[in-house]
Amino acid sequence: MFNSSRSRFSLTLFFALVITGFLIFLFFYIKHEFNTTRTEITEDAMVSKIVNMGKLELVKYAMKDVVEKKELHMILPDSRVLFVAVGDVTACIDLTKVRKDDIIQTKDTVTVSLPQPEICYVKLDHQKSRVYDVSGVWFADKSKTMVEDVYKIAEKKMLATATEMNLLGKARENAGTIFKPFLENVSGKAVLIRFK
Known about the structure:
This protein is α+β, with helices and mostly antiparallel strands. The protein has helices spanning 2-35, 140-164, 167-187; strands at 55-71, 79-94, 103-105, 109-114, 118-124, 130-135, 190-195. Strands 1, 2, 5 and 6 form a four-stranded antiparallel β-sheet that branches. The chain has a three-stranded mixed β-sheet with strand order 3-4-7, covered by helices on one side. A hairpin with a 7-residue loop joins β1 (55-71) and β2 (79-94). The radius of gyration is 34 Å and the shape is elongated.
């Protein structure tokens, strides 16, 4: 009788330990599942347009600018966005515009008429550009609109600054530096670069 109650106690203790161990395992498993995040990314990439490129980039200005936009209100606090913009402004020449009659050869010279340099693109670097402060904005939609506006303002300001710093003039200068030696080596003649 003493033996059977002892074995019953051992059996009960064994089951209690197994159930306790299972509950502890279940607790940590559920805790792990709540803390674990899984990321799913679904992509459907497709080519919407193929563009033949013929533009030769001649100069790129890497720029950094601080832009502040304020909206002044009569009653509510003023809305303000402070943005540090980092990006590039690039000038190029569209070589697809060069025609056969733009290249004139004489006995010892070649005259090439190139199209005028143009701004290829103004591109903000979204990895390096930062919105540092948004204040006085009460609604999320208004904040989003102000941030989008400040991006556009920053691009326009970069373009204006690059234009003031004679980006297109530098592109003309670089076109001569790049094309003249190349064409002289190919043709064996003196080369004169002009712009239409």
